[in-house]
Amino acid sequence: MQSPSSDPSGHLLPARGEKEERAYRAAAAVVDPEIPAVTIADLGILRGVEMDGDVAVARVTPTYTGCPAVLAIELAVETALREAGFEPRVERVISPAWTTDWITAVGREKLRAYGIAPPVKASNSIRALFGETEVACPRCGSLETARISEFGSTACKALYRCQSCHEPFDYFKCI
Predict the structure, then answer these.
(1) pLDDT at 15
(2) Domain PaaD zinc beta ribbon, which positions (predicted)?
(3) Going from the N-terminus, what domains does the chain have, and what CATH number goes with each?
């Protein structure tokens, strides 16, 4: 049995065959078109890659069913797999629904470094559902922040302003 390895973002991978691991690495390196600082593996959108004969089958779960980036992500995964030498097939998996709980620790840190406050509560938290979340400024770390708008640069983010450093920033909402 092979020992576990890690993908391009440092996520631990289960033992798998060489072709399957190579296909997973290719798909996992695809960046989110709306947030290029994170990969689809960082966000937990990439559910897995398996070999079906000579075809690399990547399973992708959109952040929400109406996400305008889902087609771009699927096409980028197809391209990455093809460029890695595989015949690609991308399957959209909508159940179970994606949740911000699937964002990895690496992904959360990349979001913060990019200037987006990562979700701070579990998606099943009643406080998260009713907007009572304390959001730390990704630039200075202050909790003295205020929501300006329920929607930021994309529907999955809200716009906040830090009361300490006065900088606006996006907050990746709990879903």
Answers:
(1) 47
(2) 126-173
(3) 5-92 (3.30.300.130), 115-172 (no CATH)
